[in-house]
Amino acid sequence: xxxxxxxxxxxxxxxxxxxxxxxxxxxxxxxxxxxxxxxxxxxxxxxxxxxxxxxxxxxxxxxxxxxxxxxxxxxxxxxxxxxxxxxxxxxxxxxxxxxxxxxxxxxxxxxxxxxxxxxxxxxxxxxxxxxxxxxxxxxxxxxxxxxxxxxxxxxxxxxxxxxxxxxxxxxxxxxxxxxxxxxxxxxxxxxxxxxxxxxxxxxxxxxxxxxxxxxxxxxxxxxxxxxxxxxxxxxxxxxxxxxxxxxxxxxxxxxxxxxxxxxxxxxxxxxxxxxxxxxxxxxxxxxxxxxxxxxxxxxxxxxxxxxxxxxxxxxxxxxxxxxxxxxxxxxxxxxxxxxxxxxxxxxxxxxxxxxxxxxxxxxxxxxxxx
Length: 370
Hints:
Elements: H1 11-15, H2 18-30, H3 38-51, E1 55-59, H4 62-72, E2 80-84, H5 90-97, E3 101-105, E4 126-129, H6 142-152, E5 155-159, E6 167-168, E7 171-172, E8 179-183, E9 197-201, H7 204-213, H8 235-245, H9 248-266, E10 272-273, E11 284-285, E12 291-295, H10 298-307, H11 335-343, E13 344-347, H12 355-368
Parallel strand pairs: 2-3, 2-4, 4-5, 5-8
Antiparallel strand pairs: 1-9, 6-7, 6-11, 8-9, 10-12, 12-13
């Protein structure tokens, strides 16, 4: 059947403001300066202010951001890092490349790291905690994670890739630990037309070190100060991101409006578990990067929705990181995570999604469950 509802509409990301993006392209490229220029510096200042951090450092992508943040924090061979398996593999692969060992905490009811399960995982080798703010929601009990890290002398590096603009008790994602890392992949809340990312921190020394590390660790005169890597933000991406950042608050509110429609339309179906609804005065301000549900008879529901022309997705192909056998982590047991992946399903969620398509999706899910 012809697609009626796209899971994500990539072309509209450009066509919606095609004239403005064309102007940006001509303006930036006409200068003949393409990497780590004034556009990057301007966006870094704007993004730091938006998040509520002192510094923002533009990098090539969020994976690089996690890698150099952990490296700059002293994480290396033999160290243990506590994180979750309910995440994109990038969160964990950077630990492997540093020679560190990932230790997995199970997830809580909101699908994020269970803070109550973290302390029992700490050993003398534990050096860091990497919470992942999945689907645009900051980990519940983030303040408890901060307390645990402080008590045990651990650093927190937040994977905030899907949570730009989310807050917990009024504090922005990425600002709870030593550093927070963000993704500007095209499908993200703040996406460019390629790969890009940023690290935020309030630590002056760390910020200075990260700025050097992203550019082969070369100082102002080209002196190489220590081992670094190539993870520089392009000026064109930065200019596009500056423009899109000026519209971001409205785009987030649109996502929250769609989430309210899903909540109202699907809440009475007892075979579904929905994410927490948008709160106005609660502890969480969720930005709904994705709308991830747990569904009974999920695979049959996927087939039904496909037949009705609705595109949906299983998170990361339907597997948590520890369930990919090739990675050698399959002996782990994470009951809540594994139960979640038997039912997990992401339905369409993006600002240009029409209300009629939201209602159609709700109707077709309701029809499936009778």
